[in-house]
């Protein structure tokens, strides 16, 4: 795992409120990552690590599975956002598969 959203001047939660669409866990689990990217959208996972939160970018299928491990009990929410908006706050292009 490696690509994370880090907006300047606002929290990750504020960024999600402006740019994200909340998904049900089942929608996340059945999403086709490559089709979404080709359609201009990207999956995100908001993870509560206790003392801090993280907003991970799901840039391939392996990342989608990694963020949804059954033995990982951290609270998570799943989001969809416009890929161009994500590019403004995360180094997405260096992680995309060619």
Sequence-ordered SSE layout with sheet pairings:
Elements: H1 12-19, E1 20-23, H2 25-30, H3 33-38, E2 41-48, E3 53-58, H4 61-66, E4 76-82, H5 83-87
Antiparallel strand pairs: 1-4, 2-3, 2-4
Q: Describe the largest sheet.
A: 4 strands, antiparallel
Q: Which value, in Å, is the CA radius of gyration?
A: 12 Å
Q: What does the oligomeric state look like here? A: single chain
Order of helices and strands: HEHHEEHEH
Distance N to C terminus = 17 Å
- Pick out the low-confidence regions: none
What does this structure look like?
By secondary structure, the chain is α+β, with helices and mostly antiparallel strands. The protein has one domain (12-94). Helix content is 32%, strand content 26%. The chain is built from five helices and four strands. The chain has helices at 12-19, 25-30, 33-38, 61-66, 83-87, and strands spanning 20-23, 41-48, 53-58, 76-82. Strands 1-4-2-3 form a four-stranded antiparallel β-sheet. A hairpin with a 4-residue loop joins strand 2 (41-48) and strand 3. The longest helix is centred in the N-terminal third of the chain and has 8 residues, at 12-19. The protein is globular, with a radius of gyration of 12 Å.
In short:
The chain has 98 residues and is α+β, with helices and mostly antiparallel strands.
Characteristic key phrases:
98 residues, alpha+beta, four-stranded antiparallel β-sheet, 4 strands, 32% helix, 26% strand
């Amino acid at each position: 795992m490696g690509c994370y959203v880090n907006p300047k001047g606002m929290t990750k939660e504020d960024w999600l409120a402006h740019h994200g669409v909340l998904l049900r866990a089942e929608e996340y689990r059945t999403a086709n990552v490559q089709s979404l990217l080709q359609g201009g959208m990207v999956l995100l996972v908001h993870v509560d690590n206790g003392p801090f939160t993280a907003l991970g970018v799901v840039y391939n299928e392996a990342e989608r599975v990694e963020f949804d491990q059954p033995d990982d009990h951290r609270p998570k929410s799943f989001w969809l956002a416009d890929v161009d908006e994500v590019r403004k706050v995360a180094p997405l292009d260096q992680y995309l598969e060619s």
